[in-house]
Specification:
The protein is mainly beta and 364 residues long. The protein contains no helices and 23 strands. The chain has a single domain, classed as Tachylectin-2, Chain A, CATH 2.115.10. Strands 1, 20, 21, 22 and 23 form a five-stranded antiparallel beta sheet that branches. The chain has a four-stranded antiparallel beta sheet with strand order 2-3-4-5, with no helix packed on it. The two termini are 38 Å apart.
Length: 364
């Protein structure tokens, strides 16, 4: 079974951290395999933008925007630092709907299968030759290493280009698809969510049995903070801690040095989402001059068997630009916070004396 924070839930008292570890260690197949990542930013893999990292038993798998014109390659590791190439896990065919711009894969497990969600560029029916980005899904019945076979694309449509698929599966098995209404056909990039059917191959008719509201896309986030600029919120990554839902997201253009990562917290998968006043938590590093690491964004979070979190994100050196975005990672810490329920940091922090348990105020 997959061990990914997309499925994880932990009691709030377990979030009290020490200088060594976030959570009390638990027994696991991978518990005796040392992880060499630290609090310091570390280069993990070259040329792996838009990362998705999952753990299955004692092995980690990393996917990304490796070959936009062909499909997706992947890697595997047992310690998050030494990686073996798996080659293509999904590759387009002549009959594939999308022929270019295969971006931002997301892999989850459900129904004893592995599902690969992605966006690609193809023809839009009934539009007199117009093309655009849509989200699709491919399935592997042989494991996270693939091969993934295209099942349905477009998975759904909203009349405009959509990218950056992120699927979160809650504790009760309900699946939610987060996506970005792309700036290419919208005044700015914004994040939305819809609920998926049990087989993950269509949009559910309604949110749940007690809520007969039509399953229309629900708005989650848009760029409002000063550090976010005015055009981009993208690259969502959602997971659960206790009763709270955390969304990592990126702001500013991916091609700019200021591309950075923030987070928001919500009481349910559809929000409302409250952005942290501590944002951004991942940003460019001027101290790495004369050739600083910049454009730090599109993150994904994974947890090792001891409960320690790690955040992965792509970045590039300022002199090279976005021609090659490499994969970086470091430890991530989560603890109770008096201002926003939970606080995410890159170094261990002392727990607050007066912890709030109410819904946090909206933060710009």
């Amino acid at each position: 079974m997959i061990s990914s924070i997309r499925h994880a839930s932990y009691p709030l008292y377990a979030l009290l951290i020490t200088a060594i570890s976030l959570l009390t260690p638990t027994t696991s197949l991978a518990a005796d395999i040392p992880i060499n990542l630290t609090d310091t930013r570390q280069l993990v893999l070259k040329a792996l933008p838009d990362p998705c990292v999952i753990r299955v038993a004692d092995t980690y798998y990393a996917y990304g925007t490796t070959d936009p014109g062909q499909g997706f390659q992947a890697y595997k590791s047992q310690n998050l630092t030494d990686w073996q190439s798996l080659g293509f896990v999904f590759k387009k065919t002549e009959s594939s709907w999308g022929q270019k711009h295969y971006w931002a894969p997301c892999v989850v497990q459900k129904n004893n299968k592995f599902y690969l969600f992605y966006s690609t560029f193809g023809p839009i029916n009934g539009t007199w030759g117009r093309a655009g980005h849509r989200i699709g899904v491919a399935i592997s019945e042989s494991g996270p290493q693939g091969p993934f076979i295209e099942q349905k694309i477009p998975l759904f449509g909203v009349g405009k280009s959509i990218i950056d698929a992120e699927v979160f599966i809650d504790n009760d098995g309900s699946a939610y698809l987060y996506y970005v209404l792309d700036i290419s056909e919208n005044k700015r990039s914004e994040i939305f969510v819809v609920k998926l059917s049990d087989d993950l191959l269509s949009i559910a008719d309604q949110w749940d049995q007690d809520d007969t509201t039509s399953n229309e896309p629900v708005w989650c986030a848009e760029p409002i903070g000063k550090w976010e600029g005015k055009q981009w919120n993208e690259g969502p990554n959602v997971f659960r801690v206790d009763k709270w839902y955390i969304m990592m997201y990126s702001a500013n253009g991916f091609f700019t040095p200021d591309y950075s990562v923030g987070y928001a917290i919500a009481p349910s998968p559809r929000g409302p989402w409250f952005k942290s006043p501590s944002n951004p938590i991942i940003k460019k590093d001027p101290s790495s001059a004369p050739n600083p690491i910049v454009g730090t964004g599109h993150s994904d979070v994974v947890q090792d068997p001891t409960g320690q979190y790690y955040i992965f994100y792509h970045a590039h050196s300022q002199d090279r630009g976005v021609k090659r975005r490499d994969l970086y990672a470091q430890k991530l810490y989560i603890q109770p916070d008096k201002d926003l329920i939970l606080k995410l940091t890159l170094t261990p922090q002392p727990a607050p004396h007066n912890q709030s348990t109410s819904t946090p105020p909206i933060k710009d």
